[in-house]
Amino acid sequence: xxxxxxxxxxxxxxxxxxxxxxxxxxxxxYLASRHxxxxxxxxxxxxxxxxxxxxxxxxxxxxxxxxxxxxxxxxCEEMGLGSTSICSALLHDVVEDTDYTVEDIENxxxxxxxxxxxxxxxISGGIFGERASAQAENFKKLLLTMSDDIRVIxxxxxxxxxxxxxxxxxxxxxxxxIAGETLYIYAPLANRLGLNKIKTELEDLSFRYExxxxxxxxxxxxxxxQEKRDELFASFTGPIREALDRMGIQYQIKARVKSPYSIWNxxxxxxxxxxxxxxxxxxxxxxxxxERDQEINECFxxxxxxxxxxxxxxxxxxxxxxHPKANGYQALHVTLMSKQGRWIEVQIRSDRMNEVAxxxxxxxxxxxxxxxxxxxxxxxxxxxxxxxxxLDDPQPDAMDFLDSIKLNLFASEIFVFTxxxxxxxxxxxxxxxxxxxxxHTFLGSHCIGAKVNHxxxxxxxxLSSGDQVEILTSKAQHVQPSWINFVSTAKARAKIQAxxxxxxxxxxKAGEELLTAWLKHNMMEMSSSVLDKLCDIHxxxxxxxxxxxxxxxxxxxxxxxxxxLLGKHQKEAxxxxxxxxxxxxxxxxxxxxxxxxxxxxxxxxxxxxFNKRQxxxxxxxxxxxxxxxxxxxxxxxxxxxxxxxxxxxxxxxxRACPVASRLKSSYGNRILDAKWNMHKQLFFDAIIEIKGxxxxxxxxxxxxxxxxxxxxxxxxxxxxxxxxxxxxxxxVRVHDRDEVxxxxxxLKVIDDLKxxxxxx
Length: 760
What we know:
By secondary structure, the chain is an alpha+beta fold. Helix content is 48%, strand content 15%. Among the domains are: 3-210, Hypothetical protein af1432 (Orthogonal Bundle), CATH 1.10.3210; 219-365, 2-Layer Sandwich (Beta Polymerase, domain 2); 577-677, no CATH class; 684-758, 2-Layer Sandwich (Alpha-Beta Plaits). It has a five-stranded mixed β-sheet with strand order 1-2-5-4-3. Strand 16 and strand 17 (725-734) form a beta hairpin. Helix 7 (111-124) crosses helix 9 (150-165) and helix 11 packs across helix 12. One of its GO terms (biological process) is guanosine tetraphosphate metabolic process. Pathway: Purine metabolism.
């Protein structure tokens, strides 16, 4: 045996030990659980999968079988699932990646495991491969499969969690695609199923890959402020421990620190700095009830004891005990004022409630008697019914479907009463119109208003927990397009869209007839080129939109259309939309003619052999070759990505842009990594919003800081004053994001200027 063969043999021996140790760890975890012990079938599944994946490696270089073992480990250890799920996790890639079929799995492992593996194969679609179909379509399949066996979705979440934990081996464009898809689909789904720990980890991992610098900065600040938090936790919980000890309660108190993603999200949404977030620390009391059927009463007893020590916030008591969330979550949340003058949220839970909070539906199964666990999905039935209702009315755009489901995934619940006193669970933020559609489609489509707690309110009125709602209708009322802007439930949105689509089809038909008659009158025939030209003239995207606009008379055909069709006034379309955000070159370095030259660049086209793994580099010489849509206005310093559009041109978006989130989820294989390589030559527009106490000289101070001290060009400034408070926008021209931050930091020191935030 030569040296190379010896090295290969040694490597195989080391890898065999790695695989065997990982499987033994899985078995040890399973044997320590409360499940009925079925070691033989798990071992059989492991040996089968190991043989099927033999010789195959992941991108990281490790043997492929390590992935199914890791997925099974998550299912067992972090979700508390049993042998059927563990076997299905070990076998989840066999049918997709090898020559074995679902029938082979059924013959060897039985129909239940085969059904779950089949479900996982159907929704996979090659998540990491170029053959990946739009993830929204996969999500449809995934939800349909859920109704057969919820374990399909649970194992799929385990699979996604392990893929996220090992995402470092993927190229950057795949990282953005997978991270964006995870935030858009899997994290909210885990949240809806009550998998709180997994949801938090999925969010943090996505954040870490999409915004590595912000993630590192927040982790660093959390580490620097750890000592202060520990002191606050110790001083706050000391008196609580004494009280619980006197009551003879068996308990543990844990500090819950807000995750980096939650902190960043709050910084973005509330426009605050890390230092301005005061709820980073929360306290969790987990107790073992003296009697299992008295655990709700014991939660309230603990709350009473706490309120004797600290003053509680009257508006921040959340009772999830008597009204658990749809995902099974139960706890009592109370906010108390610490001796340091800080509000601190305390979550009171029994040990059972805590397991449900961490492991979701999986924890329910652990408390079922005499068997592995129940397949009962009772608490999901209402949600699944909504999904099936939406699927009954298929929509042309899968993203519409995903958006409507996402609305329900993210929502927390409120409780609303009918006039007869029946209680209805609705998502928080829902309106009277949502409630009307929830009761019946006829009520929703003919709704003219509502009475909430016996007071007349409009359709758009947002409901609160405890409201009693009576819907008012009129046969003369019809669904309006504007309704879509203030409904928040999937059911209402789907019904409104279905009715509007039906109305749109009628208008389109009328418009098509009008256009045909007009063309005939002018001795022309309808063709694709004629329709395309008319779409260009009237700035509409599709032929259907053109027909509809003609049908509802928003477009009136006339002489200008005729001239354009006959070629008398053709104008070359320009593709330099980016010029709005890159207005001109640095006047010291370039003349206006050079700026025009940059603006007139031909758009870059991604040919078939284009390497998607290479980052797109944007510099002064190449910026005109890319499209900068108006949705997010990226400027140098922003985290960005590229997207190959239907014309094979490349759009540049901020990674956090809502449009980019949709693109990552739906067209992940068109996402590219993108980087800036700018040298402070081009100027970009940025708008800073300010708010403060109105006083004499404020405008002078603002101009002094920006123009005189920083030598920044103020393009436009608007200020409005009302009852001693002023609001304003300052539009500046800057080279990059660092200059925007510097301006904001300088503005914050101006007296009476209370809020400074960036809009664009």
